[in-house]
Amino acid sequence: MSSTNTEILTKFENIDHLSQYLNNIINNLSNETLESQDQDLEKTIKNYFRQRATDETHPLPAELPNHIQKALETSFKIHQSTITNTLMKEKLSNKGQNLVEQYDWKLRWVLGTSKLANQRVPLCQLELYCSKNLINFECTFEQVEELINVLNNVKKEIK
């Protein structure tokens, strides 16, 4: 970290202001750095958080005072999952993957189907709002259970 960046960070007299500044940087991690006098500092901090997310042993800049090192580390620990998710989303988006950004579901009770007029079947209507499109489908209780099991297995493999 350059001495100018170190000087800027040490000007934060209140640790709460520094924490708020770091949180704003984390919230805008995937956005371009705005043109400002703190542009180099912001890029440096973003790079630190990115490297720290992929390498837990990535050291803090030694020239920083202890209270600033502690604020950086605390902000990272609080927002580690957000940082990691942002980096994963960026990587998958860059590879052209369709990512689920939000979802919505509804449970419906169908009183008859084309197969049996008197059959009562609970159906789940699931809407996946993806980065490229909307996926909408209906599934039975058994299919929902299977989907949950598959997603849990994927989650285990990612960890």
Describe this structure in words.
It is a single chain. The chain contains 5 helices and 3 strands. With 159 residues, the protein is of the alpha+beta class. The protein has a 3-stranded antiparallel β-sheet with strand order 1-2-3. Strand 2 (121-130) and strand 3 form a beta hairpin. Helix 3 packs across helix 4 (66-94). The protein is elongated, with a radius of gyration of 23 Å.
SSE order, one letter for each helix or strand: HHHHEEEH
Shape: elongated
Q: Provide the helix percentage.
A: 40-55%
- Gap between N and C termini: 31 Å
Sheet/helix structural class: alpha+beta
- Give average pLDDT, whole number: 81
Radius of gyration: 23 Å
By oligomeric state, this entry counts as single chain
Question: Count the helices. How many?
Answer: 5
Whole-number total of structural domains: 2
Largest beta-sheet characterization: 3 strands, antiparallel
Order of the strands making up the biggest sheet = 1-2-3
Portion of residues in beta strands equals: 15-25%
Unreliable spans are: none
Count of DSSP E strands? Answer: 3
Short description:
The chain has 159 residues and is an alpha+beta fold. 53% of the residues lie in helices and 18% in strands.
How does the SSE layout of this entry go?
Layout: H1 3-10, H2 15-27, H3 39-54, H4 66-94, E1 100-110, E2 121-130, E3 134-140, H5 141-158
Antiparallel strand pairs: 1-2, 2-3
Tags for this entry?
single chain, 159 residues, alpha+beta, 2 domains, COMM domain-containing protein
